[in-house]
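pls design
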């Protein structure tokens, strides 16, 4: 029994190593330019057969990676919604989270904002049908109801607001901004919020 528990733990550790290696490679080289051999080597696995013990193919690695990122983002948004009563405060914290991830985990944000996931995971729901997106729409709906946000379609509020946020983060990820991304957070928040807030 103990040996089985140890084997399961080792397998989970190996899976985590593979996912971290794949994330880095997909962000740097792109999905199609990354081979299973590249992932195995970056994860410290001697042969690709060691990788096959955890994942059946490269697409399965990408699926697990996408699911993990979406789940983590969803949990973080739940936490933000629990901690803050006002929709405007919730939105501000979501923006803070995205800026922090861009600074501290750029590969994750590259995967979310830059890499065209649908090209290699066509079966996955588009981002706009995932739990994090649905939760953000609920925040916007609550903001409209509380009269903090203009009475517009929530999807348009999302487009206007996150259009500014996401474009700034993409510029940061591509190295187009002269300063660290956190230097722009308050300025970008004000610009995005001014577009949707009910004056």
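designed seq:
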């Amino acid at each position: 029994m103990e040996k089985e528990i140890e084997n399961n733990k080792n397998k989970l550790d190996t899976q985590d190593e593979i996912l971290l290696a794949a994330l880095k490679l997909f962000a740097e080289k792109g999905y199609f330019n990354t081979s299973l051999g590249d992932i195995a080597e970056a994860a410290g696995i001697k042969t690709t057969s060691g990788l096959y013990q955890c994942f059946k193919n490269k697409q399965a690695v990408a699926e697990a990676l996408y699911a993990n990122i979406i789940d983590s983002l969803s949990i973080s948004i739940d936490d933000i919604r629990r901690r803050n009563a006002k929709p405007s405060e919730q939105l501000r914290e979501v923006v803070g989270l995205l800026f922090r991830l861009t600074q501290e985990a750029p590969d994750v944000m590259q995967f979310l904002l830059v890499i065209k996931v649908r090209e290699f995971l066509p079966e996955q729901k588009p981002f706009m049908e995932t739990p994090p997106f649905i939760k953000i729409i609920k925040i916007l709906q609550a903001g409209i109801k509380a009269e903090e946000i203009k009475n517009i379609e929530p999807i348009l509020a999302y487009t206007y607001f996150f259009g500014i946020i996401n474009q700034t983060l993409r510029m940061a990820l591509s190295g187009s901004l002269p300063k660290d991304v956190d230097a722009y957070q308050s300025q970008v928040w004000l610009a995005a919020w001014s577009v949707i807030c009910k004056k």
